[in-house]
Amino acid sequence: MYPADVKYTKDHEWIKVTGATARVGITDYAQKQLGDVVFLELPQVGRVLQQGETFGTVESVKAVSELYSPAGGEVVAVNAALAEHPEAVNKNPHGSWMIELRLSTPAEVDALLAVTDYESLIG
Fold first, then answer.
1. Fewest CB within 10 angstroms: 13, 22, 63, 101, which?
2. How far is residue 123's CA from residue 121's CA, in Å, rounded to a whole number?
């Protein structure tokens, strides 16, 4: 169920590195806990994030939750289509990236959870 080619955080974000950039989204577990996603607040391109820093919010019919950056870097792209259709997160959470980062310290990703560790975390 969870892709093995990405890393995970304990806050239920995923990050997939491709070269010098990485895409970030929320996990299937997170979207199930949230329920129907109705709104996303995402950062501006050019914003520099530190690992663990809040980069936006996701609003569902149940709650509003903060989104945390799994690694530090500069936001080089925001998924505008997802901002217009946030419900896509519920349909395909691992295919619905929110932001793309140019990583400042790629080694930060190495310290995140592998798929087996994440699956153990969520039980």
1. 63
2. 5
- Beta-carbon contacts of 108 under 8 Å, excluding residues fewer than 6 positions away, are 51, 70, 71, 72
Does 2 fall in a domain? Answer: no
**How many distinct structural domains can be found in the chain?**
1
pLDDT in tens, 41-59: 999 999 999 999 999 999 9
pLDDT digit string, tens, across residues 68-93: 999 999 999 999 999 899 999 999 99
**Strand partners for 68:** 54
Q: What value, to the nearest 5°, has the Cα angle with vertex 75 and ends 95 and 115?
A: 40
H-helix segments, the chain: 28-34, 80-84, 88-91, 107-110, 115-122
Domain annotation covers residue 1: no
Q: Per the domain annotation, does 109 fall within a domain?
A: yes
Residue 87 maps to which CATH number?
Answer: 2.40.50.100
Angle 43-14-86 from CA coordinates, rounded to 5°? 50
Tokens of 120: 């153990």
The verdict on residue 88 lying in a domain is yes
